[in-house]
Amino acid sequence: MDKLRQTPAELQFVPGDGDLSERWKRWIQTVNLYMDVCMKDASEKERCSAFLYIIGQDGRDIHNTFDFETSEVDKIKPLIQKFEDYCIPKQNTTIQRYKFNKRVQGETESVDQYVT
């Protein structure tokens, strides 16, 4: 049980790295499990403080750029949602469709590679 009390690792924010959304999904799952086990009786403010401590200095720097409504201050759900919006950017469906429809099979690419 003592190992469960070990805090999760910081989220690594690497500029220009396309894997941030995948790292975020794995990291937030770990943090949610940690908070469910170790902080189930904690207040919203304590959960927010723990979240900001666990996410690391880079995450706190990003947090300082967010704007919160007065009703959202010290609430964990809006805090997580802001980071989710940051880590998993919205995709332009029109651009994605265009790229998909313009895709051409490469000369050395097998049919299986092209289809997947």
Summarize it.
56% of the residues lie in helices and 0% in strands.
Structure, described:
The model has no long low-confidence stretch (mean pLDDT 88). The chain has 116 residues and is mostly helical. The protein has one domain. It contains six helices and no strands.
Give a topology summary:
Elements: H1 20-38, H2 44-55, H3 57-63, H4 76-87, H5 93-102, H6 111-115
Shape: elongated
Poorly predicted parts: none
* Sheet of most strands: none
Give the number of DSSP strands. 0
The figure for the number of domains is: 1
- The SS-based structural class is mainly alpha
Summary tags:
single chain; 116 residues; mainly alpha; 6 helices; 56% helix; elongated
